[in-house]
Every structure is written in structure tokens, then in C-alpha cells.
Amino acid sequence: MSEILLNKKRISLICPILLTAGSFIGCNSMEDLEKIDLSDTVELEKVESVQRPKINICVGSMITPEEGYAYYKRLLDYIGHKLEAKIDFVEKMTYEEVNASLKNGDIDVAFVCGGPYVAGHDDFNLQLLAAPVVNGKPLYYSYIIVGKESGIENLYGLRGKAFAFVNPMSNTGKLIPTHILHESGETVQSLFSEYSYTYGHDRSIKAVAQGIVDGAAVDSLIWDYMDKKGSPYTKKTKIINISESYGIPPVVVRPGLGEGLKARIKDILLNMHDAEEGKEILKNMFIDRFIEVDDSAYDGIRHVRASVTR
After folding, report:
1. Are both 228 and 93 inside the same structural domain?
2. Of 243, 261, 285, at which residue does a domain stop?
């Protein structure tokens, strides 16, 4: 509510005269009106409205293809409208940057991969807020993909080939495939002639489709999303290995975020599938709904992390 600052000078308030069906003032009675001296009035100063609270929400470039940002922007606008708050859309290139910003308080809320969540939770008490349900489950997988016409049919067909990972902290884009190799007695160095990081699941998919690399490990959610959208890049790739299921990339909040605000954001996410606008946004993102999820849902990722670092 705007606050009106009063000048020390006296302000004459002029009340409008309402004309109703029962009381009219004719032209002849104008001389009977009291003359009002306006010489001692001043203009009311314009005062800005009280600023809405600002919340910084990050969507890492790794967890969504470029064309998906429009839907995340709509989701963030939806949250801001419900909160009556200003939402700043923060984009970071790497998971390391995202976690560092969550740790020092520059980011309040983030959509992250399971790997960075586990690392952040164990390092500085990064907190779960909610998780999406896709195809009826809060789970996802790591896909190993190759060119559709490559003739490669399994992981070992990539021996001596160039391979793309997404990010050193990525669960589906680095940790899981490394774990799979360890379980079969291989290493990244023993199987591939070279490897690189693309810092984006969609970039890895494009790199394989364009023949820049021979294979890549990518998030099933991203590959499936792009394929459902008719991407020409997924049409040029094929999946040769699907991992076990793991806890889906969650929505997280920084430690120290006010409990009241945290509860309100969670409530918005958990109930948006019941609202017409929210349902439409989720449909375009291929998300069924958001649910509460326990930290134990990510113990599988902890096991993978431990196996590849020991």
C-alpha cells in the first residue's frame, strides 16, 4: 500500500460532488456554490509502491535443452505470481557454479541434477523442496547413445572411440556411466580413446548426431523430451544402454531460506497440477506433477559417487 507523504503546507482536499438521480445542481444555482481558494494547495508527491520481495531461482543449463527454457520461464513466472514476488531467472553454466551460489546465498532455489544435490546436501546442507513425477515415477536413467547409423550396438563397441560426458558432477552424464564401466572392469581411459565435457545434455546429443563424438552419456529426461518434441538430433541417435533408475533431479533450496517462504514455494509446486494454468505448464514440460521426496531417494546416487571416487 503506497504511503502518501504530506507537505508541511496545508493541503485543501476537494471532495467531488456526486450527481445522483435524487440530487441535481442546475445551471442557475452555480452562483450559490461556495468559492474555494486553491492558492494554498500543493501537488501530492508521487511515491513508488513498496517493492515486492525478490527471489533468485536458478535453472542450470545442463538440465534442460535450450528450447525448454521458455517453459521454465513460464513456471518461474507462475511461482512469482502466486507469491506476489519478483523472480529473477538465474542461469549458471556448471553444477559447480550452481552449488557455490546456493552455498553462499546468491541463489535461493534451484532445479538441479541428483548428483549436485547429493554433493550439496553432504557438503553444506542443501535442502530438498520437491521433485517432479515423469511418466508416473520420480525416477530417471542414464542413456548411452551413439549415432543411429554407427553400427555400434553396445558399450564395448565404443572401444577406442571419442566419448562425451556432460559435467564431472552430473549423475547421468558422468557418474553413472563411470560406475557402469567400473562394474565391468573398465575405466574411462581404458575404453575410450578420448573424452570431453559438453556442459549440456542437449549439447551431448547434438555432438553425437553431428558426428563430433561417437557416443555420449545423457539424461533420459532430456533425450525423451527432445524426442517427443520431434528433435532432428534424437532422430539421428539411438540408445544402446539404459542404466538402473535413480532419484529424479529435484528442486532444492539454500540452507537458511526462511521456513515460511520455503513452505509457500513448496505448496505452489505441489498443487500446481490442480490449477488450470499450472496444469498447462506441466503438460508442456512433460511433468505429471511435483511431489514431496525424502533424501533417502538419492541414496543410490550416493552409492554411485562412492564407487567412482574410492
Report:
1. no
2. 243
Beta bridge partners of residue 110, listed in sequence order? 58, 252
Tell whether 108 and 238 lie within a shared domain.
Answer: no
Say whether both 147 and 275 belong to one domain: no
269 and 120, same domain (yes or no): yes
Residues 253 and 107 in one domain: yes
The per-residue pLDDT string of the chain (310 residues; one tens digit each, 9 = 90 and over) reads 433 333 333 333 333 333 333 433 343 443 444 443 434 444 444 434 445 578 999 986 655 666 677 888 899 999 999 999 999 988 776 889 999 999 999 999 999 989 999 999 999 999 999 999 999 999 999 999 999 999 999 999 999 999 999 999 899 999 999 999 999 899 999 999 999 999 989 999 999 999 999 999 999 999 999 999 999 999 999 999 999 999 999 999 999 999 999 999 999 999 999 999 999 999 999 999 999 999 999 999 999 998 887 6
Give residue 224's domain range.
Answer: 142-243
Domain containing residue 169: CATH number: 3.40.190.10
Pairing label, strands 162-165, 215-219: parallel
Q: What are phi and psi of 192, to 5 degrees?
A: -100, 150
Residue 146 and residue 239 share a domain: yes
CA gap 310, 11 in Å, rounded:
77
> Per the confidence metrics, is the pTM higher than 0.85?
no
